């Protein structure tokens, strides 16, 4: 490992002009390329205290042996040179976005005498028009099958085409009308080219014009009593409409735009792009990359756009690009816009949508990016070799006697100290065991803050650690009504049980008749938080008689691993598989706690409104909510509609409607008449 001070340039030798720099290792291989508005300021930041550097930046400066730079005149030149160097040297520490999968395109080979339409993957070729990308190849084939009814272009391979030309008979598609059969000269090359041009125009988004033209021809054929042609045109219109249904209209003004969104964590970033042409989503694509340093969203977007449009060529740059963030420096943002405009050969608008349909679409793309990142992390976790390495890294870093094959993680969720709940998630061999999840309702002064709540949840969990015998399912002598510890086995999407009443169903072993609570003691306990939460968990576990089970805390801000009664955390490398696993366990516990808390909060709000209805017990309250689906719909119902619910008579229905109306914002009750008045 090199010492950065051995190759640090003297401060006076570094210019203050804009430029591009590159770090190289001892063998001369370029390991990082960057650009700066002020080279001296930027390069000096790499040679500060090593402890203050991002872990990946630290790895880069200790791998490098030399640094060089080139001064340029403008920001645009800096962008161009940075991209060309990254493309030439492929530095290992630069962010390189890689596809999360290989995407297929619908391609039209305009460079051939008789162009054809087909599914293509891989590198793009000159003279070929690409549409997409699509998520699945079958989606392209279904769309193409519909379009070939109307645009019977060639879709066969060169071998099939030449064979049909030799024997003088078309293939099956020519006989069923899905190819104009230029191989046997049913149409000339020019006529076939016209059909191809119509197909390309339709795929470019000029759909309405073409459909209206077919409608006019259909009406004209019907007027001339040519009903056979009119029926064929009618079927063509229906086929086009089915093909158009696959691409939803998202922008009503027919905009051509690329919508870019990102989702990141301290280690990785996922980018998602929706390609909108003619107001319709024509395709989408996703990338995932390791983060090289603490980059802002604007810097990540800038590097991504350079890679996306630099590799695909200027013809793929749309007129408008919607992004979640721009470079913080105004000059850098202007330089990026200017460079993209040069690539396109026309003005490009690069902006952040603030409201309306475009803002809603950006939020949709952002959700897709977040899903891509989660899927990427789950794929890492599903690999057996990766999971084993993660467990071994945790064992070494925490100095455990053995690999923690069972990890339990706890998190607390509350709203200003109310509706305090805890969650427990279980990972065995690096995989989630949702059937072993538990939820805890923490009531009273026990859960006045996160530390107290953690202590109470851990105390209750380890008090129930044994497979003790119990009289029957659903009973638990010696425990109060606020003990939940409910297994995650119900009908929720991920198997969670709604135990808002304070207790969930118990699992009973069919052979022994005993209540099964916890399979066995964990190899590691993780709590969401820092040193206070860890110390509270350790105290609760000691009081419960399990001092030999290790416990750690994972703090969100810097992803530090805290041990009990220590002054300094354990720092796992940002690329560590062990850290990935701990993060995933912690995030799952947080998700599970939030879900449970939201359910309890929603139910408590509903119950507080209906509690004031005289004669309305829990069973009838549940029947009302089941019938109407929500409190909002119940509030909008009339007394007659409420009375249709089983068990609700006219008098009780009137009481329900009256109480709900009186609790409506802006409503008041006339104490003399009982009439509801709106303010």
Automatic annotation (TrEMBL):
SUPFAM superfamilies: C-terminal UvrC-binding domain of UvrB (SSF46600), GIY-YIG endonuclease (SSF82771), RuvA domain 2-like (SSF47781). Residues 208-243 form the UVR domain. Pfam families: GIY-YIG, HHH_5, UVR, UvrC_RNaseH, UvrC_RNaseH_dom. GO terms for molecular function: DNA binding; excinuclease ABC activity. Keywords: Cytoplasm, DNA damage, DNA excision, DNA repair, Excision nuclease, SOS response. Residues 259-541 form the UvrC family homology region profile domain. One of its GO terms (biological process) is nucleotide-excision repair. InterPro entries: GIY-YIG_endonuc, GIY-YIG_endonuc_sf, GIY-YIG_UvrC_Cho, Hlx-hairpin-Hlx_DNA-bd_motif, RuvA_2-like, UVR_dom, UVR_dom_sf, UvrABC_protein_C. It is found in: Cytoplasm. One of its GO terms (cellular component) is cytoplasm. Residues 16-95 form the GIY-YIG domain. The UvrABC repair system catalyzes the recognition and processing of DNA lesions. UvrC both incises the 5' and 3' sides of the lesion. The N-terminal half is responsible for the 3' incision and the C-terminal half is responsible for the 5' incision. Interacts with UvrB in an incision complex. Belongs to the UvrC family. This is UvrABC system protein C. It comes from Phytoactinopolyspora alkaliphila.
């Amino acid at each position: 490992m090199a010492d950065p001070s051995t190759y640090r340039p003297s401060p006076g030798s570094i210019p203050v002009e804009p430029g591009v720099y590159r770090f190289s290792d001892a063998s001369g291989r370029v390991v990082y390329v960057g650009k700066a508005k002020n080279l001296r300021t930027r390069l000096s930041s790499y040679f500060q205290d090593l402890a203050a550097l991002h872990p990946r930046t630290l790895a880069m400066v200790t791998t490098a042996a030399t640094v060089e730079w080139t001064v340029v005149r403008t920001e645009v030149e800096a962008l161009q040179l940075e991209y060309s160097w990254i493309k030439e040297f492929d530095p290992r520490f630069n962010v390189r976005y890689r596809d999360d999968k290989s995407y297929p395109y619908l391609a039209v080979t305009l460079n051939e005498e008789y162009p054809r339409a087909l599914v293509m993957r891989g590198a793009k070729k000159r003279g070929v028009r690409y549409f997409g990308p699509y998520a699945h190849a079958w989606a392209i084939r279904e769309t193409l099958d519909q379009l070939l009814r109307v645009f019977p272009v060639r879709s066969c391979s060169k071998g099939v085409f030449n064979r049909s030309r030799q024997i003088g008979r078309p293939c099956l598609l020519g006989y069923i009308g899905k190819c104009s059969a230029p191989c046997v000269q049913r149409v000339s090359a020019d006529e076939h080219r016209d059909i191809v041009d119509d197909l390309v125009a339709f795929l470019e988004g000029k759909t309405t014009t073409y459909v209206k033209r077919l409608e006019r021809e259909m009406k004209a054929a019907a007027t001339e009593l040519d009903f056979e042609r009119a029926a064929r045109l009618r079927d063509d219109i229906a086929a086009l409409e089915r093909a158009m249904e696959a691409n939803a209209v998202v922008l009503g003004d027919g905009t051509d735009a690329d919508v870019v969104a990102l989702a990141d964590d301290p280690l990785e970033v996922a980018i998602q792009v929706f390609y909108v042409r003619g107001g319709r989503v024509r395709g989408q694509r996703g990338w995932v990359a390791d983060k090289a340093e603490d980059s802002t969203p604007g810097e990540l977007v800038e590097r991504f756009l350079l890679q996306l449009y630099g590799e695909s060529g200027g013809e793929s740059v749309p007129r408008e690009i919607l992004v979640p963030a721009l470079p913080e420096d105004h000059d850098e943002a202007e330089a990026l816009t200017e460079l993209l405009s040069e690539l396109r050969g026309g003005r490009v608008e690069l902006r952040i949508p603030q409201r309306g349909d475009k803002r809603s679409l950006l939020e949709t793309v952002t959700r897709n990016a977040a899903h891509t990142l989660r899927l990427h992390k789950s794929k890492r976790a599903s690999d057996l070799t990766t999971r084993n390495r993660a467990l071994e890294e945790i064992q070494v870093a925490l100095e455990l006697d053995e690999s923690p094959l069972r990890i339990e993680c706890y998190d607390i969720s509350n709203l200003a100290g109310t509706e305090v709940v805890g969650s427990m998630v279980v990972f065995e061999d690096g995989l989630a065991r949702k059937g072993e999840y538990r939820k805890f309702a923490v009531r009273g002064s026990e859960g006045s803050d996160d530390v107290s709540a953690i202590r109470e949840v851990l105390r209750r969990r380890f008090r129930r650690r044994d497979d003790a015998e119990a009289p029957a399912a659903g009973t638990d002598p010696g425990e109060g009504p606020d003990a939940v510890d409910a297994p995650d086995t119900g009908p929720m999407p991920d198997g969670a049980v709604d135990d808002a009443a304070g207790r969930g169903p118990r699992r009973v072993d069919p052979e022994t008749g005993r209540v099964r609570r916890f399979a066995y003691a964990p190899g590691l306990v993780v709590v969401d938080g820092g040193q206070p939460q860890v110390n509270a968990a350790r105290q609760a576990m000691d009081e419960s008689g399990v001092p030999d089970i290790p416990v750690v805390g994972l703090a969100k801000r810097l992803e530090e691993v805290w041990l009990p009664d220590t002054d300094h955390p354990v720092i796992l490398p940002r690329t560590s598989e062990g850290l990935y696993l701990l993060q995933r366990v912690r995030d799952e516990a947080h998700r599970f706690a939030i879900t449970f808390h939201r359910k309890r909060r929603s139910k408590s709000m509903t119950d507080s409104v209906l509690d004031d209805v005289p004669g309305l017990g829990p069973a009838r309250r549940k029947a009302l909510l089941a019938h109407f689906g929500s409190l909002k719909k119940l509030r909008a119902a009339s007394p007659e509609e409420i009375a249709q619910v089983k068990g609700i008579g006219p008098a009780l229905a009137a009481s329900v409607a009256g109480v709900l109306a009186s609790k409506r914002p802006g409503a008041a009750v006339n104490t003399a008449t009982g009439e509801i008045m709106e303010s």
